Amino acid sequence: MSIEYVSTICPYCSCGCGIDLVVKDGRIVGQEPWKEHPVNQGGNCPKGKNAYKFLYSADRLTMPLVRKNGTFKEASWDEALGLISAKLKEASPEDFGFIASCRNSNEDAYVMQKFTRVVMGTNNIEYCGRLCHSPAAAALIPAMGSGAMQTSQPEIELADCIFLAGVNIMETFPLIARRIFRAKAKGAKVIYTDPRKTATARYLADVHLQLRSGTDAALINAMMSIILAEGLEDKEFIASRTAGIDELRTFLSKVDLKQAEEITGVPVEKIKEAAITYAKAERGCILYDQGMSQHYVGTDNVRNHANLALLCGHAGKPGSGINSMRGQINGEGSGDMGCLCVFYPGFKRVGEETAKLFEKAWGVNNLPTKPGLTYIDMLYKLSYLYVVGGDPMMAVPDVNNVKKALEKVNFLVVQDIFPTEISKLAHVVLPAATWVEREATHTWIDRRVQKINKVVEPPGEAKPDWWIMCKLAEKMGYKDKFNFSSSGEIFEEIRNCVPQYKGITYDRLSHTVGGIHWPCPSEDHPGTPTMFLEKFNTPDGLGHFQAVEFKPPAELTDDEYPYVMTTGRSIFHYHTGSMTRRTPKLVDEVQRGFVEVNPEDASKAGIHNKDMVTLETRRGSIEAEAKVTDEVPSGLLFVPFHFSESLANVLTISVLDPSAKCAETKVCAARLKVKG
Ligand code: SF4
After folding, report:
1. CA of 510 to the centre of ligand 1 (A)
2. CA 45 to ligand 1: nearest atom
3. What one-character-per-residue DSSP string does 174-229 give?
4. pTM score > 0.85 for this model?
5. Average pLDDT in the 12-39 region?
6. Rounded to the nearest whole angstrom, what is the distance from the C-alpha of residue 436 to the centroid of ligand 1?
7. Of 253, 426, 623, 630, which sits 20 to 30 A from 222 (CA to CA)?
8. What is the mean pLDDT of residues 511-526?
């Protein structure tokens, strides 16, 4: 019998907390928080404390499965990859798309986009970051030069005002919430925008702006007009580090605060309190998430919060900036690696010049030069799809329509660790290794690259994602371009293609607890916890203001659908639930989907706590248990999106942000009744 303690990183949210696993005879049997790890310093949240349990779920995929006469049959790797290769050779570049995931490692994601561009000849490569944080790049690249988080997690504790914009941080990033408690203990104030009175509102917020869903732009415009009227803008910062203030000033001069109150539902006095608190702070730190950005005006919303940060000089110093809170383990890294239809690795924009650069790096010709299709468009428009590590049948709005489109696809490959809703429609299902069954790097929320070592063997025939892609490329005649025998070899190629990662090596990562923040230009560079200390990453080095007009939500309530429905997360579950719903302790905490209803609305509709109710929108209907609570104001319903049998995305609307192509999953019109 052998017992080992192996340190690794939590597989869930993008904080990147350390955990210690207890391994007995090649099987993980227990875990503890990694005490010395700088991200979590001895703590883990409920998901992190139960991180490995799903590995041993009885329904792990362990063999390739090929659909024959309507049922899946086990197949060898040779047979499954041979079939995929033959089918993909039929596809034209315009008809093939690859959907990667925020859960893939950097090495996996890099090989997937390279496969799509080199073997399939298309930029139709996306990952699920498109569905939540694409407004970050769309808004912040023009405004400041990068969509990545601008400060590091520990530096949040330096802020004396923390503005939580649409991020219920107590449930979604509990270990960052702990840092905010520490900042509060030193006197920091917390401003929080959320239509719901969540745990974050109750325990962290000093000023809770309980705005109507989708009215963020009106609120921020009002805050900025107050700051200018009070003369609280940072004049020196504006003069030396920004451009465009005059146009913004002219635009904001027309803001009517009473009208802002009517639109947002937030009293002017509260808006004033928030504006003055943020403007007077020494270091203001905006942390935002999907509540603010998952709207058809998500790019506008992010842009407007960037305006606010620039106006008050809250950027370019530790513990400040506007910081996108990417939710999943490799939300940052999969984007860095080029799993986006408009960016090659390193956020090099798709075009002739970039294609030439990568043709040289990869030793190939004719790389695609035109932008590919975005995530949701691919589902509706393509006939050959390869989906890894995610479930569009749960994660994408208006799922009933997505299902109709996917049922018509000629050939669908799904690669994952468990059967999922989308794998039910696949022609071939491939078994992947989980995060501790292979060696890899990921890049966590604050551009922190850490290495995860292999701890146990994958079950049966499950393999690392990068291995599968390389073997498929070999079958399709590209062995020499995908001749990687380890993830370390892939990382060496990444370092050569992605300047931000140039100075990061496997060897350095093996000796650096807590990892290294990109950009890291050379091997003797310590990494960069804070961005933009001297200048922004825009062509002129300045931060750019751009005025944002408020636009109402795409679907408004009416007599037929009188409630606003919004969606979000629970602390006990993770995204589409494929891992947490196979973790007994977490299932015990929250077993099924629910809808939060205000007591006044429940009473009018004759609904009692725990009644089964039917919730309907113009897209479809679901059944869920009613949770009668004053966490939601009258007129608002909240549905978590983790539960396939009460699937929130059956109801949500597929109206897309024109710049970022992210959907408006945070607002739609709904109706509710006791289940008949
Ligand atoms: Fe894991 Fe995130 Fe929880 Fe840390 S905060 S233990 S990374 S889920």
Report:
1. 21
2. 3
3. HHHHHHHHHHHHTT-EEEEE-SS--HHHHHT-SEEE-PPTT-HHHHHHHHHHHHHH
4. yes
5. 94
6. 16
7. 630
8. 97
